[in-house]
Amino acid sequence: MGRAAGLGLGGAMLLALLAGCSAEDVGKKFGHFGWPGPGISLQAHKMYDLWIASTVAALVVGVGVWGLIFWCVIRYRKRGEELPVQTRFNMPMEVLYTVTPVLIVAVLFYYTAIVQTDVDKLSKNPDQVVQVTAFKWNWEFDYRDGIGTEAKTVASTVGSSDVIPILVVPTHEKIRFEEISKDVIHSFWVPELLFKRDVMPGNVRNVFEVTLDKEGRYVGRCAELCGTYHAFMNFELVAVTSAEFDKFLAAKTAGQSTQDALTSIGKAPYATTTQPFNTRRQTHSWNQSGATEAAGK
C-alpha cells in the first residue's frame, strides 16, 4: 500500500507539473499527441485543449496502472514453493477502483459536452454567411446576404478541373457555413479547423460557425468517399483581415474574378497549398481504329 501511495503521489506531482503549462505548451513538447496543432479558430482551440487534457489524464492513469502491474510482478514473483498470503477481498481497494473510473468518465463527459455545445453553437446574426455547395467533384462557395434559403447570393467562387476553388474568409468574425450537396454525401474539411462536417444531399442544410483568429492559407478537402475523383476534390481556405475581406468582396460584387479580386488585396491569385490533379479524363490514345486493328489481329 505504501508503494501504491507513492505511485499516486508521483501521478499527482506529474499533474501539478503539467498544470503549470498551457495545453499548447504541453502539445508542442509531445507532438500535439497526433493532432495537426492548436488550430486556427476559437472553436478549434477549445477542442485542442480538451484533446490534450484528456490525453494527459489517460497517460497519468496508464502510468499508474503500469506501475502497479510491474510492482505486483516484482513484489509477488515466485520465491519458493510457499504461497503468499491469499486475500479474498480488500474493501478500500474495491471502492477505489470502482469509484475512480466513474469519476474519470464523468469529468471527461462533462467537459466534452461543454466543448461540443460550444462548437455547435449558432449565433442569431453572424458577420458573414457562406453557402458551401459540393458536387462531383468540386466546390462552389456563395457569399450570402443573410441566413437560410431566403437569402440571396452576392458573389460566388466555383472550382473546375483546372482551377482550385479558393474560399476567402475574414478573421475575428463569426462565419456561418451552410452546406448543401447536389448529388451524394461529401464532407467539408479543413484540417487546421480540427473539424469537419458532412455535406448532405436533398433538403438537408448542415450549418456550423467558426471564428478564425489566424491569417494564412490552408488546404481543404472532401473527407467522405464520394466517387471516382473524390481524392481530387480539394479547395483552399484563405483567411485575411476584415478590411482585406471587405475589399475582396467588393471586387467580387463588382464582377471581378476570384483571381483578380485576390490580386487586388495583394494575395496570390491561385492556390498555394494544393494544385489541380490530373483527373485522367482525356480521350485515350487507343481509339476505335486501334481497337479494330487489334481485333483483326
Automatic annotation (TrEMBL):
Topology with respect to the bilayer: Multi-pass membrane protein
Signal sequence, start to end: none
EC number from the UniProt entry: 7.1.1.9
Ranges where the record places region Disordered: 272-297
Cellular component per GO, a single term: plasma membrane
Reactions listed under catalytic activity: 4 Fe(II)-[cytochrome c] + O2 + 8 H(+)(in) = 4 Fe(III)-[cytochrome c] + 2 H2O + 4 H(+)(out)
Named cofactor requirement(s): Cu cation
Descriptive protein name: Cytochrome c oxidase subunit 2
Domain (Cytochrome oxidase subunit II copper A binding) ranges: 125-251
Superkingdom, natural source: Bacteria
Cofactor binding, per record: Binds a copper A center.
GO molecular function annotations of the record: copper ion binding; cytochrome-c oxidase activity; oxidoreductase activity
A Gene Ontology BP annotation from the UniProt entry: ATP synthesis coupled electron transport
Primary residence: membrane
InterPro entries: CcO_II, CcO_II-like_C, Copper_CuA, Cupredoxin, Cyt_c_oxidase_su2, Cyt_c_oxidase_su2_TM_dom, Cyt_c_oxidase_su2_TM_sf
Keyword presence, Nucleus: no
Enzyme class, UniProt record, top EC level: translocase
Keywords: Copper, Electron transport, Membrane, Metal-binding, Respiratory chain, Translocase, Transmembrane, Transmembrane helix, Transport
Known function: Subunits I and II form the functional core of the enzyme complex. Electrons originating in cytochrome c are transferred via heme a and Cu(A) to the binuclear center formed by heme a3 and Cu(B).
Subcellular location: Cell membrane; Membrane
